[in-house]
Amino acid sequence: MTNKGDLTRQNIIDNSLQLFSVKGFYNTSINDIMETTGLTKGGLYAHFGSKEDIWYSVYDMAVRIWKDIVFKNTKDVKNPLERLEKLIVNDIKLYLGGNVFEGGCFFLNMLVELSGQSPTMSKHILQGFIKFSRLIKSWLSEAQEKGILKDNLNLKEISNFIVITLNGAAAIYASSRDAAILNQTVDQLRFYLNQLKK
């Protein structure tokens, strides 16, 4: 059973996610968070020690939301390349195209804003991108073991390229909101993956 303290904490996280997504971390003040949550400073600090502590909880929630969307219907796809293609389509069409976070891709926005400002926080985000790339590499390794991919491919380089391409699409789409960017990215990555097949 959820208690009042848990509900208050979730209220802070939910509202802060929208604020950080639209205004950024540094442009969001504690007063902004107090105003949107209806809490006093004491009420806010009863749950979080600092704005940075709130950000880490917001980040974790954003990851859960992203995973629920991007990994939707991928678990049962046996062919690892088809699974990867499904993940790419989910990321591009459902996550980015779905405008899940009002300010665009939460992770890309935060990485750009926090780089050079907060090495600890930006490193935390970067680790998420690295884990994502490693997962893609593991799926590519699985495809190679099954004889689907050409031999002697640099799977780390390929997985990094896919993550970079997804982030590039996120940046361009955020500034244009042009659905053609999303469609072209999916088409180009499909073409790219087909070139890797035996």
The amount of beta strand, in percent, is under 5%
Mean pLDDT: 95
C-alpha-based Rg, rounded:
19 Å
CATH class of the largest domain equals Mainly Alpha
Provide the CATH architecture of the largest domain: Orthogonal Bundle
The total number of structural domains is 2
Largest sheet: none
- CATH topology type of the largest domain: Tetracycline Repressor, domain 2
Count of alpha and pi helical runs:
9
Number of strands: 0
For the record, what is the CATH homologous superfamily label of the largest domain?
Tetracycline Repressor, domain 2
Helix fraction by DSSP (H/I, runs of at least 4): over 70%
What is the H-and-E element order?
HHHHHHHHH
Structural key phrases:
198 residues, mainly alpha, Arc Repressor Mutant, subunit A, Tetracycline Repressor, domain 2, 9 helices, 74% helix, 0% strand
Task: Give your account of this protein's structure.
This protein is mainly alpha-helical and 198 residues long. The chain has two domains: 1-50, Orthogonal Bundle (Arc Repressor Mutant, subunit A); 71-196, Tetracycline Repressor, domain 2. Helices cover 74% and strands 0% of the residues. The protein contains nine helices and no strands. The protein has helices at 4-23, 30-37, 41-45, 51-70, 80-96, 106-114, 119-145, 155-176, 179-196. Helix 5 (80-96) runs parallel beside helix 8. The longest helix has 27 residues, at 119-145. It is elongated and about 60 Å long. It starts with a helix and ends with a helix. The model has no long low-confidence stretch (mean pLDDT 95).
